[in-house]
Hints:
By secondary structure, this protein is an all-alpha fold. It contains 18 helices and no strands.
Amino acid sequence: MAFRKPFDTSTREGRSQERYRRMALTAITSVIAKVLGASIPLITVKLSYNYLGPELYGLWVAIISFFSLFNFADLGLGNGLRTMLGNAYGKNDIKKSKEMIASTFYMLIGVTLLFNIIFLSIFKFIKWGEVMNANTKEAIILASGVVLAVVLPKLLSIPLSIVTRTQLALQEGYKSNIWSSMAAIISLVLIYVTIKADAGKLAMVWGASSAIAIVSFANLIYYFRKERKVLSPTFKYFNKKMAFSLLKTGLLFLILSIFTTLSLALDNFIVARTSSLEESGTYAILFKLASLISIACVMISTPMWAASSEAFAKGEINWVKKNTRRISIISIGISIFAIAFLLLFSDFILKAWINSNFSYSKVLLIGMGFMQLLLSFISPYFMVLNAANIIRYQVIIFFIYFAISLPLKFILSNIYGIETIPWVGAIFYLVIIIPSVLIKVKKLYLNSKIINI
Length: 453
């Protein structure tokens, strides 16, 4: 019962305990959301892979990879809000919080309208089959339809993401996790129903792509109408000065998102261009499996962003220092165990999951696992930099990483095969990103006023 009841935040000890409580709630619900988010694709990938066939499935995942660039279509405003709102929340400034939410929401609506106009204006002039390296007649014909099915729900989700960003900033990530779990279930239902009804391959893709937008809309209505009505994004709280400040911070997050996305999320597209769509499908399946390694680590470290932001606002830096180190150590232990398990049982898992004839490279899988280990270790420290609004520095180091790793992935993949792609990413991440982040966090601690808790 004590776990469910909020602690008294008027004292330093109470604030510390309340952060732990909210982080624990977020972590627990993350377990549910991530298990569903990981296990349901394990089910849907077999259904969709067999229904679409190797090339169409490869086309689908290649398009998703290519348009992962839309992850930064909100101009970084969501992450800017997440950092600044967390600070305002830590200072109990309700008026400022309302202005931040309203200003972000209406700017996101404007951004969405602009991107929709641009995308729909150029869509019909692009030969998507050629862009995605489609070979069969069916893949060439369906390419443009798959692009629409992937892109439009992504664009519509841009303003809806305000609710998730608000929940995360207010250390209520457990609420967004519950809705995320619902989205995963709805996605499974839509895929299953469209396949069983043989509604068509495009209908299946539409069903899978639309689930998040549908659930995000329901979350937004419920949260701002029932739970946080005082923070509802009404237009009268739109503040031009606040909007400019959010946009300034958001643009730094935007640039950072561009470089991290280009560096880490285009691997399937690289495989499609340097090898084939069929290999892209295989790569995507292996990556889904390898990414399970960092699930527990991500769900533990993500709540540190909001918690650290609130702790910084109250000057309680030592709490941040202690818990960041603790979470990083826990993440390493979990990741090492998960990698060992994956390597031991990958053959059994993949043959049972996909089919008995599924073939893959063990070297490729090990490289993906190594990269996930590095991401798990450093993720809590990124949360600290985000909470402290140290974004420009991250932009610089990721630009260097991007400029070196991305060209090398293309070059070495062409020469030595796709097995080199995750290894290039992991080695340069270890050499460039990790030491740079650790050095900056250490300086942050030294230059901040330390308060023991």
